[in-house]
Write a structure and sequence with these properties.
mainly alpha
Length: about 110
């Protein structure tokens, strides 16, 4: 564990990526356990990433942060999602469906636990 603590940013990046890509509950649980063991630095790194990174990078922090600090993740995500627009290729592709973005935002908010 000391080796993981010596490079917290890299460790959290790898844990968040593994958490996001895993389809097995046990792997997600293990990644969350390691993040919890890393302490407040893990929460801080993930919160900063979700708050300040580009949308494509920030979304990788959502899953793991939801296991560490759900209220913070919800607050930051709800604030950030207002400013996230669709990438240019999606705008062209979905131009015929004007309600697409509103529907996507409603779906994202509906997935958040109450």
């Amino acid at each position: 564990m000391e080796v993981l603590r010596s490079a917290p940013h890299l460790t959290i990046e790898k844990l968040a990526a593994r958490f996001a890509q895993s389809s097995r509950r046990a792997e997600c649980d293990r990644a969350a356990e390691i993040a919890v063991a890393l302490g407040t630095s893990a929460r801080k790194i993930l919160t900063q990433k979700l708050h300040g990174a580009q949308p494509g990078e920030a979304v990788s922090a959502i899953g793991l942060l939801s296991r560490l600090d759900l209220p913070a993740m919800e607050a930051i995500l709800l604030e950030r999602i207002k400013s996230w627009g669709r990438p240019a290729p999606e705008r062209r592709h979905c131009a015929a469906r004007p309600g697409w973005l509103a529907g996507a935002k409603r779906a994202a908010v509906a997935l958040l636990p109450v």
